[in-house]
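User: Hi! I have a protein structure encoded as tokens and I'd like to know what sequence might fold into it. I'm fairly new to this, so please keep things simple.
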């Protein structure tokens, strides 16, 4: 597979010129580095300096001996994984984060002379198994990449994380749909630790998916692959969050990677063809009630399994969220299904409610619950909250001067 190529310095260049030299994967890796090894070495370099130290691509090239294109591409991958942060653009500068040390630990120690051992399988080939509780009991929580725990729910007589992993093994794309805050993204992150996420909106471009030319530290341009190409090259899962907000013309660039071809053509970079590695998988999220979200026939047809996701109010109770708040949310959800109101608090709002209650008190949390309701539903929400508490409740607001 081809990696980003370093352009020759072109000071004062106003437009990018496609590189003509060999690819970085040929000039810098030569097939000897295991998948992710360069990223791990860069991470090790980032954490090896003094606290807060920043490194340019050129400095990392001098330290590690790889091409600028390969270094730049690996740095951008670290940024997307949250294992580094970009702090400058001209030149591009990178700094370690709290998770960089863990990425650096994956670097391979120098091997003694002798026959080379069998290289380890790429990380994407190992599928994690969900945490389980006592035999015959409920599955235990699954830790997401951000450290938060996800509590599995039932899906086709399986824990949902296990069901999604089996669908990935079978190559069956999944679309999760439901109101914002119901846990769609949390489920996907729990199921796929190797996830790359694209946050879709109306401004998402083909370049945001596939890649585009970026100015390097010399004033020239280099092509930086986007998350779609990275996921294909590394055999990782790709989440299109809010996929139905992305223009159908942009999504069309993704479809060849999802069908039997499993290939895309990077027209902006010498027309090269990318073929998906084993493990590459696409999953999407859709919020039907969000303005501008349109599930086209072309998009829907690519996802053989479509799963509705609603809030688990039983989980909210198990998380020790205020029972009255949970009861109000259930009531509003019932009204929403009957068409009497357009909004109901989801699990995300209930978790936030409890945090606010712990800091400012339950009275302020209930007032905030009224205040975050859409304007057209606020009176109805205030009425239901008032009835549940037995006293008038209005939106949270500032009072008189103290």
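Assistant: Happy to help. Inverse folding works backwards from shape to sequence: for each of the 402 positions I chose a residue that suits the local structure. Here it is:
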């Amino acid at each position: 597979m081809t990696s980003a190529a370093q352009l020759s310095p072109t000071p004062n260049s106003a437009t990018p010129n496609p590189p003509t030299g060999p690819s970085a994967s040929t000039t810098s890796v030569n097939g000897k580095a295991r998948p992710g090894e360069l990223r791990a070495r860069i991470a090790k370099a980032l954490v090896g300096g003094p606290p807060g130290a920043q490194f340019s691509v050129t400095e990392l090239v001098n330290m590690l001996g790889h091409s600028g294109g390969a270094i730049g591409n690996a740095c951008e991958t670290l940024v997307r994984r949250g294992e580094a942060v970009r702090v400058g653009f001209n030149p591009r500068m990178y700094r370690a984060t709290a998770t960089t040390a863990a990425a650096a630990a994956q670097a391979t120690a120098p091997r003694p002379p002798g026959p080379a051992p069998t290289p380890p399988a790429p990380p994407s080939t190992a599928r994690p198994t969900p945490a389980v509780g006592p035999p015959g009991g409920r599955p235990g929580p699954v830790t997401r990449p951000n450290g938060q725990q996800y509590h599995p729910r039932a899906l086709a007589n399986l824990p949902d994380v296990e069901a999604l992993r089996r669908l990935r093994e079978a190559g069956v794309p999944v679309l999760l749909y439901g109101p914002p805050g119901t846990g769609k993204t949390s489920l996907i992150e729990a199921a796929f630790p190797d996830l790359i996420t694209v946050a879709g909106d109306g401004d998402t471009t083909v370049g945001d998916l596939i890649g585009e030319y970026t100015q390097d530290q010399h004033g020239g341009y280099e092509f930086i692959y986007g998350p779609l190409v990275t996921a294909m090259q590394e055999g990782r899962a790709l989440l299109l969050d809010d996929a139905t907000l992305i223009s159908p013309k942009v999504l069309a660039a993704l479809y060849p990677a999802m069908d039997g071809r499993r290939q895309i053509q990077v027209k902006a970079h010498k027309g090269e063809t990318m073929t998906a590695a084993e493990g590459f998988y696409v999953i999407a999220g859709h919020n039907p009630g969000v303005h501008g979200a349109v599930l086209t026939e072309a998009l829907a047809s690519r996802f053989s399994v479509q799963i509705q996701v609603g809030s688990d109010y039983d989980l909210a109770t198990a998380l020790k969220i205020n029972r009255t708040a949970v009861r109000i949310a259930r009531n509003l959800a019932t009204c929403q299904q009957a068409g009497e109101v357009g909004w109901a608090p989801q699990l995300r709002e209930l978790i936030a409610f409890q945090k606010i209650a712990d800091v400012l008190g339950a009275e302020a949390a209930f007032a905030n619950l009224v205040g975050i309701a859409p304007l057209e539903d606020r009176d109805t929400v205030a009425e239901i909250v008032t009835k549940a508490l037995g006293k008038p409740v209005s939106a949270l607001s500032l009072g008189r001067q103290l």
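A useful reference point when you look it over: The two ends are 66 Å apart (CA to CA). Feel free to ask if any position seems puzzling.
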